[in-house]
Amino acid sequence: MPPAAAERNGRLTALVTGAAGFIGCNLVERLISDGWSVRGLDDERTGDWGRVKAEVDRVDGSLEVMSADELQVLCGDVDVLFHLAAEKHNTPGVTADRTIEVNVAATARLFSAAGSVGVPKIVFTSSLYAYGSMGPDVMYEQDLPHPSTVYGVSKLAGEHLLRATERSYGVRWSVARLFFIYGPRQLAAGGYPSVVVRNFERIARDEAPVVNGDGSQTLDYVFVEDCVEALLRLGLGDHHGLTVNVASGTSTSVNDLTAAMLAVTGSLLEPTAGPADWTAGSRRVGSPDLAAERLAWKTTTPLDEGLRRVWEAA
Question: Is this structure's pTM higher than 0.90?
Fold first, then answer.
């Protein structure tokens, strides 16, 4: 537990950037439910404060335009910084320059501010795109990263910035490399809609779900509540310099995913084929072994249950 907690009678304070985002709103609600005080930052470019169903110290703002003084105030009296805010992969209209500006330059300034005011711990949400792998091999934390997208490069840079912050300020840190997180409130508006979002929306309109290519491409799906649990364990545990996959280790093809979605809805629609895209033939799966060993964490939500909860919440 971060040392500053004892100074406030044991009540922890978290700063969550991207607090109105999909994962952020779930993290904020879990933290508050667990008795934390939460300060949340979001500019609602892809987030929506309306989906945060808890009392949070709300800060409307964008990291890339905040001054050093503003960032220091933002980080003041914080026990754990959960840095989720980022320009996401494939978000419409986002340029490479903007991705670097937000995910690297603004992240560097945030980490520096956190270090300068004595934040004891940073948890950074990185991504499977830091690996750059399209399979078929399972991704392990000890693999040498070869990111092939600007987004992946930016996430790997964020990981390295933690090491620079540690050297300058002694901040402890952990990294969560997220795989394919899904769940209720994963809104399509303002960001890149996942295949789960897109096809549930189509089914709700009584339109056939679309499968790009032959549907054999496989992904590693993690329900959002399981992801949040991993982030909490990284924030609270006595972990420093730890990078773990937030992954199930289970490979699910788009064909199998689509069949499960149709089963959950009770729909008799038949999938329709779309053109093959850049994911054709890929297998993107992470090993959960290190998270199990170091965090005693694993996914607990079966895919069919998670999909049912998404559908019922729509």
Answer: yes
